Amino acid sequence: MTHFNNYTLAGSLNDKIKPTHLVTIILNEGISEDAIDGSRRWIRGDDPNYNIAFLAYIRSVAKEAVSKNCWQRYKPRLASVGSIEGDGVNQHHHLHFAIRKPAYLSEQRFKDILRQKAHRNRWFKTGPNAFDIQSLPTKIDGHQAIGYALKKGINRLLYT
Questions:
Q1: How many CB atoms are closer than 10 A to CB 57?
Q2: Where are the chain's structural domains?
Q3: C-alpha dihedral sign at 130, 66, 159, 55
Q4: How far from 140 is each of 17, 41, 136, CA to CA, in Å?
Q5: Please, are residues 94 and 112 in contact by the beta-carbon 8 Å criterion?
Q6: pLDDT tens digits, 59-107
Q7: How far apart are the first and last CA of the chain?
Q8: Rounded CA gap, 139 and 57, in Å?
Q9: Cβ–Cβ under 8 Å, residues 53 and 160
Protein backbone atom coordinates (compact mmCIF):
# COMPACT_ATOMS: atom_id res chain seq x y z
CA MET A 1 0.00 0.00 0.00
CA THR A 2 1.27 3.45 -0.82
CA HIS A 3 1.68 6.27 1.66
CA PHE A 4 -1.31 8.07 0.09
CA ASN A 5 -3.57 5.01 0.47
CA ASN A 6 -2.53 4.59 4.11
CA TYR A 7 -3.27 8.26 4.74
CA THR A 8 -6.69 7.98 3.07
CA LEU A 9 -7.55 4.79 4.97
CA ALA A 10 -6.44 6.39 8.26
CA GLY A 11 -8.72 9.37 7.55
CA SER A 12 -11.69 7.11 6.79
CA LEU A 13 -11.15 5.00 9.91
CA ASN A 14 -10.68 8.14 12.01
CA ASP A 15 -14.01 9.55 10.77
CA LYS A 16 -15.77 6.25 11.52
CA ILE A 17 -14.21 5.44 14.91
CA LYS A 18 -13.51 8.93 16.31
CA PRO A 19 -10.82 7.62 18.70
CA THR A 20 -10.16 9.26 22.03
CA HIS A 21 -7.18 7.16 23.23
CA LEU A 22 -4.11 5.41 21.86
CA VAL A 23 -3.06 2.27 23.74
CA THR A 24 0.22 0.36 23.42
CA ILE A 25 0.60 -3.09 24.96
CA ILE A 26 3.67 -5.35 24.82
CA LEU A 27 2.76 -8.95 23.99
CA ASN A 28 4.21 -12.15 25.42
CA GLU A 29 6.25 -14.18 22.93
CA GLY A 30 4.57 -17.35 24.18
CA ILE A 31 2.55 -18.81 27.05
CA SER A 32 2.54 -22.05 28.99
CA GLU A 33 -0.71 -24.00 28.98
CA ASP A 34 -2.00 -27.25 30.52
CA ALA A 35 -2.46 -29.99 27.93
CA ILE A 36 -5.26 -32.57 28.04
CA ASP A 37 -2.91 -35.25 29.40
CA GLY A 38 -1.98 -33.05 32.38
CA SER A 39 1.42 -31.97 31.07
CA ARG A 40 2.42 -28.37 30.28
CA ARG A 41 3.03 -27.18 26.75
CA TRP A 42 4.47 -24.01 25.30
CA ILE A 43 2.39 -22.04 22.79
CA ARG A 44 4.37 -19.63 20.63
CA GLY A 45 2.83 -16.23 19.98
CA ASP A 46 1.76 -15.54 16.39
CA ASP A 47 -0.71 -13.28 14.59
CA PRO A 48 -3.78 -15.57 14.96
CA ASN A 49 -3.19 -15.92 18.72
CA TYR A 50 -2.62 -12.19 19.10
CA ASN A 51 -5.76 -11.39 17.05
CA ILE A 52 -7.87 -13.63 19.29
CA ALA A 53 -6.31 -12.08 22.40
CA PHE A 54 -7.03 -8.55 21.11
CA LEU A 55 -10.67 -9.34 20.30
CA ALA A 56 -11.14 -11.01 23.70
CA TYR A 57 -9.56 -7.97 25.37
CA ILE A 58 -11.83 -5.47 23.59
CA ARG A 59 -14.86 -7.64 24.40
CA SER A 60 -13.92 -7.81 28.10
CA VAL A 61 -13.41 -4.03 28.24
CA ALA A 62 -16.82 -3.47 26.60
CA LYS A 63 -18.45 -5.92 29.02
CA GLU A 64 -16.95 -4.13 32.03
CA ALA A 65 -17.94 -0.69 30.70
CA VAL A 66 -21.70 -1.34 30.72
CA SER A 67 -24.24 -2.67 33.18
CA LYS A 68 -24.92 -6.41 33.36
CA ASN A 69 -28.42 -5.94 31.95
CA CYS A 70 -27.14 -3.87 29.02
CA TRP A 71 -24.46 -6.45 28.23
CA GLN A 72 -26.91 -9.38 28.29
CA ARG A 73 -29.39 -7.56 26.09
CA TYR A 74 -27.25 -5.69 23.52
CA LYS A 75 -23.60 -6.82 23.82
CA PRO A 76 -22.29 -3.40 22.71
CA ARG A 77 -18.89 -3.15 21.00
CA LEU A 78 -16.20 -0.55 21.46
CA ALA A 79 -14.94 0.96 18.23
CA SER A 80 -11.20 0.42 17.83
CA VAL A 81 -8.52 -0.06 15.19
CA GLY A 82 -4.91 -1.09 15.61
CA SER A 83 -2.11 -3.32 14.48
CA ILE A 84 0.43 -5.83 15.69
CA GLU A 85 4.07 -4.85 15.28
CA GLY A 86 7.36 -6.58 15.93
CA ASP A 87 8.90 -9.79 14.67
CA GLY A 88 9.79 -11.45 17.98
CA VAL A 89 13.50 -11.43 17.09
CA ASN A 90 14.72 -7.84 16.69
CA GLN A 91 11.68 -6.26 18.31
CA HIS A 92 9.13 -7.60 20.82
CA HIS A 93 5.64 -8.09 19.49
CA HIS A 94 3.45 -5.23 20.61
CA LEU A 95 0.03 -3.89 19.88
CA HIS A 96 -0.99 -0.31 19.06
CA PHE A 97 -4.66 0.54 18.88
CA ALA A 98 -6.87 3.61 18.88
CA ILE A 99 -10.14 3.29 20.77
CA ARG A 100 -13.13 5.51 21.48
CA LYS A 101 -14.12 6.05 25.11
CA PRO A 102 -17.87 5.73 25.73
CA ALA A 103 -19.35 9.13 26.63
CA TYR A 104 -20.93 7.87 29.86
CA LEU A 105 -17.60 6.71 31.38
CA SER A 106 -15.22 9.03 33.19
CA GLU A 107 -11.68 9.33 31.90
CA GLN A 108 -10.18 7.67 34.99
CA ARG A 109 -12.70 4.80 35.04
CA PHE A 110 -12.04 4.05 31.35
CA LYS A 111 -8.26 3.98 31.89
CA ASP A 112 -8.71 1.75 34.95
CA ILE A 113 -10.82 -0.73 32.96
CA LEU A 114 -8.28 -0.80 30.11
CA ARG A 115 -5.38 -1.39 32.52
CA GLN A 116 -7.23 -3.98 34.63
CA LYS A 117 -8.31 -6.06 31.64
CA ALA A 118 -4.83 -5.88 30.10
CA HIS A 119 -3.32 -7.36 33.27
CA ARG A 120 -5.78 -10.25 33.13
CA ASN A 121 -5.01 -11.22 29.53
CA ARG A 122 -2.33 -13.93 29.48
CA TRP A 123 -0.96 -12.83 26.09
CA PHE A 124 -0.23 -9.32 27.41
CA LYS A 125 2.90 -8.65 29.45
CA THR A 126 2.56 -7.15 32.89
CA GLY A 127 4.92 -4.66 34.45
CA PRO A 128 5.54 -0.93 34.59
CA ASN A 129 6.44 -0.47 30.90
CA ALA A 130 4.15 -3.09 29.35
CA PHE A 131 1.07 -0.86 29.06
CA ASP A 132 0.77 2.75 27.89
CA ILE A 133 -2.34 4.83 27.28
CA GLN A 134 -2.45 8.33 25.80
CA SER A 135 -5.38 10.68 25.28
CA LEU A 136 -6.06 11.96 21.76
CA PRO A 137 -7.59 15.42 22.32
CA THR A 138 -8.14 16.40 18.66
CA LYS A 139 -9.30 14.77 15.45
CA ILE A 140 -5.84 15.30 13.94
CA ASP A 141 -4.27 13.34 16.82
CA GLY A 142 -6.68 10.47 16.12
CA HIS A 143 -5.78 10.52 12.43
CA GLN A 144 -2.06 10.43 13.26
CA ALA A 145 -2.54 7.59 15.76
CA ILE A 146 -4.41 5.47 13.22
CA GLY A 147 -1.84 6.36 10.57
CA TYR A 148 0.91 5.21 12.92
CA ALA A 149 -0.90 1.93 13.49
CA LEU A 150 -1.12 1.45 9.70
CA LYS A 151 2.53 2.26 8.99
CA LYS A 152 3.34 -1.39 8.18
CA GLY A 153 0.27 -1.80 5.94
CA ILE A 154 -3.03 -3.56 6.40
CA ASN A 155 -1.81 -7.18 6.71
CA ARG A 156 -1.70 -6.91 10.52
CA LEU A 157 -4.70 -4.59 10.92
CA LEU A 158 -7.10 -5.24 13.83
CA TYR A 159 -10.54 -3.67 13.62
CA THR A 160 -13.61 -3.90 15.84
A1: 23
A2: 3-159
A3: positive
A4: 13, 45, 9
A5: no
A6: 999 999 998 898 999 988 899 998 888 887 778 899 999 999 999 999 9
A7: 21
A8: 25
A9: no
